[in-house]
Amino acid sequence: MPEPVFNSPTTDLRVVACPHCDLLQRLPALAAGEAARCPRCDKELWRRREDPLERTLALAIAAAILYVVANTVPMLGLSAVGHHASTTLFGGARHLWDDGQEIVAVLVLFTAVVAPALQIGSMLAIVVGARRPCPPSWVGTLLRHHPRTATWSMIEVMILGVLVALIKIADYASVNAGLALFALGALVVLLAAMQSAFDPREVWARVEWADAAARSAVERAARDAAAEVPS
Amino acid sequence: MGRRGGAKRRGTRRARRRRRGAVVTTAPVAAIQRGWQSCEACGLLSRPGADAGACPRCGEELAFRKHRSIERTWAFVIAAAVCYVPANLLPVMVTTTAAGSAPDTIMEGVILLWSPTGWPLSLIVLIASIMIPSAKILALVYLLVTVQRGSVANNAERVRLFRTVELIGRWSMVDVFVDTFTAALVQLQPLMAVEPGPGLLFFAAVVVLTMLAVESFDPRLIWDAAPSEEVVHA
């Protein structure tokens, strides 16, 4: 494996570029709950959180428990003229597969089952890893990919879809919402709370660097020029 | 929770924007103009050597801008636009009853739902399945064309449009889930059965392709044509 080539980092970690407009700026010191926004394009750059690791961990554990409930118990039931049918989240995707819609079935399974599991699982691992005195580099690897799992985890969209389906069917059969639907509703709230309790800057500040030498150079420079303002 | 934090939550959007966020210490300048690369994953600023390297903190491959952002975004948008046609013309759902089978396209689904009591649902499906996908494609084409023409007008509005597209795009998946769970539940053979139709695949493709287009678009390109002496209203 070839040795990776690393860029040389800035010595002042508070200086950042806005991800949406590339404006160079320095983050101010923030109290918990405060946010810094880009003055040019209004992108939120950083929102400092109160006690981010502990709170995120608590919410992620709760989300993991609800996730298991939501995927094991029936979500929807239907009865009409002596027929009874019920389906779980997984069952919905499997039915699509059986109907020859394999690609859509995989998409449904991924956005409603797999991506939420990855989102919760990677968040748990990130927070548990980051709470260690010297967080290992795999925490950074997971954190790097975490936003993508959140983008593709679509439980809230799925719930809206399920509700529309329920009301559509209600015209010609009696339908009832199962326990899983309520668990999923609570899971949406917990996932939103988990994401907003989390502060990635806090983890990045603790995690081991890919280029260990660069980190010690940055820390040395920060100590040497504690009060100096760089150009 | 600080005093400013409390005020911030109550503040209107306009009031929040007036409040100064980050501090610009130097004259307003983009990182690229000073040779800094900003890591998309961890936010660290770093300077490349002879060749573009990796982020020293998280190891992500770095570049000044997303790799071939314009070409990749165009490719996804054009593919989405192509899939958009069969997604709307082919049935997404086929209902089979004793009287025969009735295929429904997305628009027919909206019309069928429209009734004195069902109109809110019909509206949800109309917005999520018809208006959002087409608005997304149009918005991305507008962003691509203005960036390629080097437009310097309405930068703040264009980046806000990008963020809106990013935020609402996932909601067009609603119809995929509606059809999935309707088909999974309504299996009352021989009375009635619902099967997914061939349009569903194309519709799902539109949703995924537009999401990938948003992911490959680099909003910093909007600002690259801006004159460097532009005043920052900080």
Describe the structure concisely for a colleague.
The complex is a heterodimer of chains A (about 230) and B (about 230). With about 230 residues, chain A is of the alpha+beta class.
List keywords for this structure.
heterodimer; A: alpha+beta; 3-stranded antiparallel sheet; B: 234 residues; alpha+beta; 9 helices; 9% strand; elongated; disordered N terminus
Provide structural commentary.
The complex is a heterodimer of chains A (231) and B (234). With 231 residues, chain A is of the alpha+beta class. The two termini of chain A are 38 Å apart. Chain A has helices spanning 52-72, 89-98, 102-130, 137-152, 155-169, 179-197, 200-206, 212-224; strands spanning 8-9, 15-17, 24-26, 35-37, 44-47, 76-80, 83-87, 174-177. Chain B is an alpha+beta fold and 234 residues long. Chain B has nine helices and six strands, in the order ααββαββααααββαα. In chain B, the strands form two sheets. In chain B, strands 4-3-6-5 form a four-stranded antiparallel beta sheet. Chain B has a two-stranded antiparallel ribbon with strand order 1-2. In chain B, β1 (37-38) and β2 (45-47) form a beta hairpin. In chain B, α3 (69-89) packs antiparallel against α5. The longest helix of chain B is centred in the middle third of the chain and has 30 residues, at 119-148. Residues 1-20 and 229-234 of chain B have low confidence and may be disordered. Classes of the chains: A alpha+beta (231), B alpha+beta (234). Chains A and B meet through β1, β2, β3, β4 and β6 of A and α1, β1, β2, α5 and α6 of B. β1 (8-9) of chain A pairs antiparallel with β2 of chain B.
Instruction: Give the overall shape of chain B, derived from the CA principal axes.
Output: elongated
- CA radius of gyration of chain B is 23 Å
* Average pLDDT figure of chain B: 83
Radius of gyration of chain A, CA atoms, in whole angstroms: 23 Å
The stretches of 5 or more residues of chain B where confidence is low (pLDDT under 50) are: 1-20, 229-234
> What does the main sheet of chain A amount to?
3 strands, antiparallel
Give me the count of strands of chain A.
8
Q: For the largest beta sheet of chain B, what order do the strands appear in spatially? A: 4-3-6-5
Helix content of chain B: 40-55%
The helix/strand order of chain A is EEEEEHEEHHHHEHHH
The helix content of chain A, as a percent range, equals: 55-70%
